[in-house]
Amino acid sequence: MRYLSANYIFPLHINPIKEGVIQISEKGSIVNIFNCRKKSPKDKLEIFEGILCPGFVNSHCHLELSHLKGLLPKKKGLPDFISNLIEKRNVELSDIKKAIIDADTTMRKNGIVAVGDISNTDHSFFIKKKSEIVYHTFVELFSLNNHEAEITFNKGIELLKNCPKPNSIAPHATYSVSQKLFSLIKEQNKGEIVCLHNQETKSEDELFRIKNGDLYDFLKKIGRVNQSGISALQTSLLQMSKKSKIILVHNTFTSIDDVEWTKENNYSVYWCTCPKANLYIENSLPDYSIFDAEKLCIGTDSLASNSSLCILEELKVLKENTDFDLNTLLKIACKNGAEALGFKHLGTFEKGKTPGVNLINNFHEVKRIM
């Protein structure tokens, strides 16, 4: 049994406790929380400088793209990023797997205990079978051609069969999935969590509202995109199941009207922001004031669009660009992501959970304690 204390502990299901104590088993299960140090055995008390919080949840990542670190140009916009990604993605499998191993190790060192990870291939499955990190894998599908929808979908189902659980099928983005493929994904879904890249660029809404813009010019060379006359978010959600919890990723150009629309139409939505990736690709950030902070989670995206896989670094960007207090920031990094991904044993210091313990000192560095 260990008794861990710091300047403050942030249980995240209750208010922060000054000089509080976490009683935790050797297997990492929360046994109790004390509001002062006098209630714990003095000879077993471990006191740290800084704050203690649960392990981080990286709500959005592409582990299989880790080999692309530093290879794609910054701040050129989404169409240019996609084009470069397609061009540089395919390399030797041994190089891809080495980068995946390094990325998984780095995330553990950075206090990450769970990840919502995108897979277009089986390249990352080997590490998910043995990693200390818990992964929910989204087998992601994309195809603009209605005639190819069934082929694409069936390939996804085969990939899902070999994918470590938990897992689910997910559409890539509104602009990259045909109506037929959206329909097949919806029919297959029995309430599993899905995620969707949403409104990552301003031209995504322009594409669907007026059939214009940089993204439209890029995609018309690949396949047909149907103008809907409404926002990209509404276009996609109208084709998705309300039985599912939906994690919308990026949301850089989401409007307050779209946020309100999801509430009015009873969609179960979590908003996942990837601040450093948003700056890397579009050099823009969302208007965070329009989101319910209790439904906001955070991710790193891939090393193709980020210099690191570190939730603390993402929180620093969020801290500089919002008025969120520290407790809210840590909920976004831990509790909300665990809820979004369905990891009930993570995210808070509630009794019986095994959330991991991170030590943060001056919001400068993170260290895994358990």
Measured by DSSP, the beta-strand proportion falls in: 15-25%
The level 1 CATH classification of the largest domain is: Alpha Beta
Number of helices: 13
Distance between the first and last residues' Cα: 12 Å
Cα gyration radius (Å): 21 Å
CATH architecture of the largest domain: Alpha-Beta Barrel
Largest beta-sheet details: 7 strands, mixed
User: How many domains make up the coordinates?
Assistant: 2
Query: Spans of 5+ residues with little confidence (pLDDT < 50)?
Result: none
By DSSP, the count of extended strands is: 15
CATH topology of the largest domain: TIM Barrel
CATH superfamily membership of the largest domain: Metal-dependent hydrolases
Give the rounded overall mean pLDDT: 96
Sheet/helix structural class = alpha/beta
Note the overall shape: globular
Helix content: 25-40%
Order of helices and strands: EEEEEEHHEHEHEHEHHHEHEHEHHHEE
Structural description of this entry:
This protein has about 375 residues and is an alpha/beta fold. The protein folds into two domains: about 1-55 and about 345-370, Urease, subunit C, domain 1 (Roll); about 55-345, TIM Barrel. Helix content is about 30%, strand content about 25%. It has helices spanning about 80-90, 95-110, 125-130, 150-160, 180-190, 200-210, 215-220, 230-235, 255-265, 275-280, 310-320, 325-335, 335-340, and strands at about 1-10, 15-20, 20-25, 30-35, 45-55, 55-60, 110-120, 135-140, 165-170, 195-200, 245-250, 270-275, 295-300, 355-360, 365-370. Strands 1, 2, 3, 4, 5, 14 and 15 form a seven-stranded mixed sheet that branches. The longest helix is centred in the first third of the chain and has 17 residues, at about 95-110. The two termini are about 10 Å apart.
